[in-house]
Amino acid sequence: MKAITYSRYGGPEVLEYRDVPEPKLGPDSVLVRVRASSVNPVDWKVREGYLDGIMDAFFPVVPGWDLAGVVERAGAAVPEFAPGDEVIGYVRQDVVHHGTYAEYVAAPVRTLAPKPRTLSWEQAGSLPLVGLTAYQALVKALAVGAGETVLVHAAAGGVGHIAVQIAVARGARVIGTASERNFDHLRELGAEPVAYGDGLADRVRRLAPDGVHAALDLIGGEALEVSPGLLAEGGRLASIVDGRVKELGGAYVFVRPDSADLTELGRLVDSGAVTVDVAQTFPLERAAEAQRANAEGHVRGKIAITVP
After folding, report:
1. CATH architecture of structural domain 130-252
2. Which CATH superfamily groups domain 2-126+277-306?
3. Do the Cβ atoms of 138 and 216 come closer than 8 Å?
4. CATH 3.90.180.10 residue ranges in the chain?
5. Which residues, in sequence order, are CB contacts of 51 under 8 Å at separation 6+?
6. Which of 27, 212, 242, 271 gives a 20 to 30 Å CA spacing to 292?
7. Nearest to 144 by CA among 217, 212, 242, 227
8. Whole-angstrom distance, CA of residue 243 vs CA of residue 10
9. Could you tell me if 99 and 139 are in contact, meaning their C-beta atoms sit under 8 angstroms apart?
10. pLDDT digits (tens, 9 = 90+) for 179-232
11. pTM strictly above 0.85
12. Are residues 128 and 67 in contact, defined by beta-carbon separation less than 8 angstroms?
């Protein structure tokens, strides 16, 4: 089968499009014929060795943790899925080796859920990591509820635009930080936009003079630093990028595969409450370009990878 691999840590130039053996199918997994994957910042951070201290890498590595595709075969201990089922998955395992930038993936059942009917393959393949991150941060870490005001930093990005929609679906008022070119998009999603940069805290206070009930940091730096001072009494704080949030009394969220969460996320999508913004699409053989575009930043929504 065709896949993207790398045999050493490095920049996008280490990625190769080549033939590799089809993965073996364990008893608790299904073999998925991949239709789409997507690029997340963690993909190129893993490629550059930033996670080497916490995850063993077995070269050659196939990158990627997102997928949408069709079940080809089910493992011996799998009653949940059958050949022909359309699925999505956040296929992160405990080691870095068999990723999703490939024609076929042996995906553990715990990482999968039914594909939302209303999404294209590109949208579905772009949903799992960012969707689960937003869902687990807002629902589990922050427990956002109706009538609350939520501040989402980097609200137009991959995780951010999903977080805005989930918070709105839960009945919250959302203030989202972004560059001015994304203001109209945030308004369409139901958020009140606020510009990054000097004076950010004052601009948020003008919209929420009594403070916000919850703040979700998706970017770090100034966003995290100013957030505690923007909370109302009893307000909650979470970050997905900076562990220092714990020193500020908040929660650090590292997304984990969860079939039940992913299924619930799919229900939100099919109800019309959440959709996925795909900014660019690259074919599998151009995965290096896709990762380069993601690393450069300033992408609204997601970058999808299609598998022929």
Report:
1. Alpha-Beta Complex (3.90)
2. Medium-chain alcohol dehydrogenases, catalytic domain (3.90.180.10)
3. yes
4. 2-126+277-306, 130-252
5. 42, 45, 96
6. 242
7. 212
8. 25
9. no
10. 999 999 999 999 999 999 999 999 999 999 999 999 999 999 999 999 999 999
11. yes
12. yes
